[in-house]
Each structure stands twice: as C-alpha cells, then as structure tokens.
Amino acid sequence: MARLTRHELKKDELGTRLSTLMEFLLAQRRNITLGILAGLVAVGLGLGIFFFVRSRQVRAADAFAKALSTFHAPVTANPPREMPNLVSYKTNEEKYQKAQAEFTEVAGQYSSYAAGRRARYYAAICQRELGKLAEAEEQFKALTQMGDANPARPSLAGVYEQTNRSTEAEKIYRELEDNPTSTVPKVTAQIARADLYRKTNRSEAASLYEQIEKEHAGSVAGDYASQKLQQIPR
Asked: Helix 133-143 to helix 152-162 angle, to the nearest 10 degrees?
C-alpha cells in the first residue's frame, strides 16, 4: 500500500471531522430547529413587550400633558377674540374640577408609570385648591411614601399651615432642610419655614430671612428674602 503524504492525511482527517459534524447536525436537527424557533419567539416576545410598554408610556405622557394644560389654563370671563382656540375657564373652581378629573383618570390608568404618579400628585393639588383639604392631606401623605414624590412633603406641610398646624408644618420644613434633594433644595425649605414664621414668630422669621439673604446674595432666593425682610415691622 502506498504511504499517504502529510497533506493527504490532513485532508482525510478534515473530511472525517466534517462527516462527523454533519452526522451530528442531522441527528440534532430537530433540537436545533426548536432552539432557533424558541430564540426567535423570545426575541419577538421581548420586542412586543418593549413596544407595548413604550406605547403605554407615550399615551400616559400625552394624557398627563393634556391634564396639565387644563391645570394651567387661564381663567377669564371674556376670552380674547383674537385667540378663538384658546381653552379657558370662567372660574378657578371649574378649571380645577376638570383638571382633577383628568389627573385622576391618568393616575388610575397609568399608576405604574411616572406620569401616573405625577398625575396623582397634581390631582391632590387640585383638591387643595378646591378646598378639599382633608382629601388632599390624605393623598399627600400617601405620596410621601413613594420614593419619587418629594414635592408631596412641602405640599403636605402647606396643608398643615392652612389647617393651623404650624408645629407639624415646621417639622417637615426642618426635615427637608436636613435632607435636601434636587426637587426640594435646602434654601427652598428655609424660605418655606421663614414664611411660616411670618405668621407665628416675626423675630425668628427676620433672623432666617437675614441668613438666607447673606448666604444667597445675588440669587433669586436672596432677593426674595431681602424683599420679605423689608416687609416685617421693626
């Protein structure tokens, strides 16, 4: 028998490997096909969920924007003739009732989305503006338990002020000063506390306004403190 060359040996070995691979693929054809199909189904399902969630987010944002437009709509008995498409309301009560209904609907339909949680907050604001302080307080309290609802805390303090619970309002403002956030900076809480003191302790209010004026000279906060300081009788 003639001796095989090294090239022929490698070629024969490659052929054997390819033959073995083809036999394996043919034997596993059903499993491979099922695996590919399962992968395609998983990808399709993932894309479907993504587009569904994205669609819901867009609808939630649009619904929230519509309610917010109502919330900020002008109140006038005589809408300007040169703006016939301007949406306006004759009274604040009419406007806030409509806005509350729209925000409540958004909050109910999209409660798991950021727009839904913001809508719940604004619905509580509408309740406060309509004089429904007990209902607003309940909603603000519930919202303070949510991680992204920091604005609800000063709003809750505002309800405490309106219902003559200054001590509870002051407690919240001090907590916000000690734990400021991007939503409620320290100076915002300080101004709120100073404004509260104008009703209960004028000397303490003056002292705090002076501190804000000094620490934030040249800023909006500093100018506000300076203006309020001038309004306190000496």
From this structure: 150
